[in-house]
Design a protein that fits this description.
homodimer, 165 residues, alpha+beta, Arc Repressor Mutant, subunit A, Dna Ligase, domain 1, 2 domains, DNA-binding
Chain lengths: 165, 165
DNA sequence: TGACAAACGATAATATTTATCGTTTAATAG
DNA sequence: CTATTAAACGATAAATATTATCGTTTGTCA
């Protein structure tokens, strides 16, 4: 898979990182710069473990906890996204009919969502990676009714939450 | 959130379960029937832990491992789906532009996928759960080039795999 | 009944993520 | 320039999530 982000774009992202950090009064430490650069350079959606491996090549003494903490910090700053909106644990679905999902970005609730127009989603062009696409699945990300009325809860959550519908 | 699957549909699913199990020569044990029924009854995409809690009310001696094993078995049989195609660990993305993802259902590789038609996806109707939808994200599920040519690897995998692009 | 395989339950092991806490670093006031 | 202070770091324990191991039970069939 292609994992080469053009150097020019990496530098753009580094600039954005610096700007955003100073905006928020967040120290742009050596560790943070390296961690962010590793993420900015990879187009492969790396896991924390992989990021840790690569950062260690430049800062051998770095702690895995620092990597995790800063990934979360970057996500809260809006500097990186997390792929997929779903919670950390398996969720099972007995509904085998074609359907999509409403996902609450706050509490991670998942609700089935049947919609004929979403069933007809297709890409406009062949994908450049030569995947053989079997099906499309749409996630509608938003706020469930409970989280709409409790906006205070709608902030960054580090704690794990269990099986919440 | 609504978590009541009509009794009629639950019974349909139980019939399907029995049929599929005998088709595959899989014993429809008491444990399996109860586990599957718990899943079939809930529209809330339960986690293994939650399924375990509920099954325990009927079979207090059941083991969590049995629940996990059978969830995996049911998934391999095509009796239940797992919500979301992504791997167990966090994946980070420095690309903040609007984009979608190609996901390999075999090796879980994730690749960014920009497509203008997917950007315009909208539901046809208001969603019945009154979510406030903020954005739509499309996952195109399929096989990456490597997994197309290595179909032998394309079977159920129980083992965890690490950071594979 | 006896042999066999499938399934189960207990539990250890592994993987993933977060929390705790003492130390270091960096920014700033004096 | 030094003292103060808060932020950040590193080490590590703890919590959570998932899978593997293994001995026992159960059901099937010769």
């Amino acid at each position: 898979m292609q994992n080469t982000v053009p150097a020019r774009r990496v530098e753009e992202r580094m600039k954005h990182f610096q700007a955003r950090a100073s905006e928020l009064g967040l120290a742009a430490t050596h560790q943070r710069r390296i961690i962010y650069r590793v993420i900015a350079k990879s187009a492969e959606h790396p896991s924390p473990e992989l990021i840790y491996e690569r950062v260690k090549r430049e800062i051998p003494t770095i702690s895995l906890a620092t990597v995790y903490k800063n990934i979360k910090t970057f996500a809260a700053m809006g500097l990186v996204g997390e792929v997929g909106a779903l919670p950390g644990s398996i969720r099972v679905d007995a509904n085998l009919d074609r359907h999509h999902h409403l996902v609450c970005v706050n509490c991670k609730a998942v609700v089935d969502f049947c919609d004929s127009r979403l069933d007809r989603v297709r890409a406009a062009r062949a994908n450049p990676e030569n995947f053989r696409i079997l099906r499309y699945q749409v996630e509608a990300l938003g706020l469930c009714p409970a989280c709409q009325v409790a906006p205070a809860r709608n902030k960054v959550r580090t704690q794990r939450r269990k099986h919440n519908g």
